[in-house]
Task: structure prediction
Amino acid sequence: MRALVKGAVNDVRTRILLDTGANVSVISANYAKRLRLREVPDHGRSLEVRGINAGVLETRRRALVKITLGWERVYEFEMWIMNHSAGVDVVLGTDFMIPAGVRLDLFHGTARLLDEVMVPLIKSLSAADDEPYGTQVVGGPTEDLYIPDYTGPNIQNKDLDVGQQQKLVDVLKRHEKIMISSGNALPPPAYGVVCDIDVQGHAPIKQRARRTPLRFLGKLYQLLKGLLRTGLITFSDSPWASPIVIVLKKNGVDIHLCIDYKMVNAVTAIMYPTGDMFANGESDESSLVPVFDRRSFVDDICFGNKTFDGCLAMLDRLLQRFTECRISVSFTKSIFVQSKVDFLSHEVSSEGIRADPKKIKAVTEIPFPTSKKGIQSFLGALNYYSRFIQDFAVYGAALYQLMDADFAPGGDLTVAKRSFAALQQKVMDAPILRHFDRDKEVYVMLFANEWALSSTLMQEHDGKLHPVRFCGRVLKDAEMNYHPAEKEILALLLLLKVCYTQLAEWTIVTAASACLEATTVNLAEYAGMNNGVQAALEHTTEALVIVGDSRLAIQQSLGVIACRKESLLTQLNRHRELTAKFRSVKYLHVVREFNAAVDSLASETLESKVFKVVSTETRLSELVALNRIQDVIYEPTAKAEIEDKPSTTLRPDD
Result:
């Protein structure tokens, strides 16, 4: 994306080209001479650029310039000096735009600076204007184009006919530009992303470089050259320095370039990009049944569909989203439209989920440990596959209770060894866990003894009951005195807690947003809540649960906080008139991350200033996947069925 703005270089007014496709900023040599720019001496760097001219240009000249955007924002920035054919003398790339916080708003025809200062665009350059300038300005030659092999085992599927196989290849070819090879192939830089490390004002930490093994020097040199060429790394004069560590990849040929940030991490404020799972009580990912189609785990994504066309359409949407976000895909490591795939050390197929046979074999070959630490390592390895072991907690209780003294000479480990052998045998005989089917009846088997409890979720397939999930735990000291029936209730509650992702889901009935002129945040939150209540009335709902991230609106509606503002009191009275028409009304305040779908709608409306009602199935599906209200709400269907009343409609406030 390119756009022209009026600005100044060293207080001389000129036209400046803002180019998000260029990762370096340049100024023409003639213009630099006219301004008598003073070059940065002895910086010891050179730059190869292609895309700005027909061939490859090289320069070592840099100058510190003063750049003014609009009439008030002034920046000091080092630019490369070279003659080019961009049509203007000054080109600012992402090495300037990202740190300066410059964003192009083509809808309003402005360049937005920090603090929402807007600079009008002279002209937005479309793709048709790019011909004399080239495709993009790149600091150094880009990587050779990778041509995927569409005849490999990760593409070919014997269950597909020729027509289906060709449809799959056509979809992949449409997104070929984001495919990279394995090994040390380099993805494109993710423009628009700024990564800051909060060191809380700590003094710079500078560590000595570690010696690199001679056998890795050649590969390291080639890798660094590629990273520099593609702009993924640049030269740095930072006072912070951490040593690099070379790790050989699984193929035994390529290398991982790692940086030891141990000392930096010690002074860094801990910030989790997706929230701290341990802080809010959310279960660890390994204890949950994978929710395919809806969640990814770091950089591993697995999704499926009941039909080939549905799977292909989802793949097309996913790759299109990757293209928009400049996310690359390792082609040789990816598996497309297969009947069976490996995902997070599990084997996923249409039949269900089973543990990876290779990992299971490694667990079964472990000898009985000779220390408590060894037992803990065994249980840690086994815990990842505990969902496949019926009564895991019952057999594992004897191992969890072992102390260091039990491994001393004379200690009795007979029961522990028996439990150890039983667990290894159960791992070896681990069954396939069937996929949960919402249309089938659910059967639950409960078990509890003096010290542990377990539960099994089952469904009928081909006239037989097959397990869907095993779960269990050791009883706490106070729970050991419970009645056997109470222990079984605990086992049932544990099953419900673990399998909450497979309980009743919620569906969006109405998704709408509006833009209010000359209003406040509190008034907008009240208006959104009342609009949601009105929509629920139009759908003849009798029982309503109002979910919102506005603490003020929720608590004033409950009467917890007094409402004294006349403008808010008007909205509150209208809200009470509307809610009086329901059989029952409940309120739930959630943090914003659980109400992400509503937040997404509000952000779109704030930008477009247009009233909107979402009607497309694709967007509605995105909003359902985006929200996490289902994690904290359960639809009370039991009471509704007994009283023969309409089911509850869940309506987030706008």
